[in-house]
Amino acid sequence: MLHGVGVNLEPRAAAPGRRLEPKGGLVPTDLAIVMENRPGTLAEIGEALGRAGINVEGICGFVAQGQGVGHLLVADPTAARQALDGLCEVGEEREVLILEVDDRPGALGSIARKLSDAGVNVEVAYLGTGTRLVLAVSDIEKARAAL
Which CATH architecture best describes the domain 29-94? Predict the structure, then answer.
């Protein structure tokens, strides 16, 4: 954990088993980041990723204990780490579920109920581009089976 903000900055091995449908041979991966909470930090991060040719397919960000905390969905986490070097602290890297969801009341509840009934805890949730729901879960294989 870094600075008590609840973000694990220790790299984590990807979950074993079947990978999601990759784009160009790369599986979208969630990166946890911790950054300065000041004007311009997000701009610098976005510009650095853009210069490196990395598309941000999903993002979640908030402030905790005075620090910016975020999750980025990227196809090439190694290149993203390199692009972000010196701009922020990049931590946990994990395979995530990416689900196309209907944009309607109850869609999230239905998915969360299936995961809960299977004994799977949702640890991170955010929307990616379009209506793609990004979920980091306690057991990715159980989650795939439940959905």
Answer: 2-Layer Sandwich (3.30)
Q: Which two tokens stand for residue 23?
A: 């784009």
Mean pLDDT of 66-70: 96
pLDDT in tens, 86-145: 999 999 999 999 999 999 999 999 999 999 999 999 999 999 988 889 998 999 899 999
* Whole-structure pTM value: 0.79
Tokens of 143: 């989650």
**Alpha carbon distance 35, 119 (integer Å):** 33
Where b means 16+ CB within 10 Å and e means fewer, 68-82 reads bbbbbbbbbbeebbe
**Coil, helix or strand at residue 124:** strand
Q: What is the largest CA-CA distance in the chain?
A: 43
CATH of span 98-146: 3.30.70.260
Task: Work out whether the CA dihedral 74, 75, 77, 82 comes out positive or negative.
Answer: negative
d(CA 33, CA 18): 26
